[in-house]
Amino acid sequence: MANTARVLIIDDDPIMRELATAKLAEAGYETLSAADGAEGLSRLHGVDLVISDIDMPGMNGFDVVKAIRDHKTHSEIPVIVITGSERPDAVEQAFAAGATSFLAKPMNWTLFTQAVRFVLKASTDRRELRLARDAAEAGSRFKDSLLSVMSHELRTPLNAIIGFGQILADQFDRENDHLHK
Fold this sequence. Notes:
5 helices, alpha/beta, 5-stranded parallel sheet
């Protein structure tokens, strides 16, 4: 089964990067890797999913997620954060930064590829839903505009007919008044 998604793995641990790359390649994904957050951010072009370690020197995973969310072009890329942190607030902080999902170290490699598949599917579904919503809103705006134009165009000849009808009615009333006097 071949997947066309491109996955970027950002982790300062070369063994972790290598294992993740191998598992994703085995599942049919194209992978890129980066040894730190700054390098990872420079490789976002054409990426469908980012998997980032939280605890890295320099730019940590929280900063990576925030930078992706703040980037105009890449803000919609889903991000899975990976942590072996014992800090109870690490996952909450990751979600607050904009992470899509998280995985815990040590890694369960079977769940790893399933999590990647799930997050990519959810991202595709969300994108399709957003496109359908945008198309429905555009259709609604077109319908409103069309009804407005049609209403105006129908009122224009009707106003003339009503106006002529009123003139005829006024003239008829004046002639009736003259006849009864």
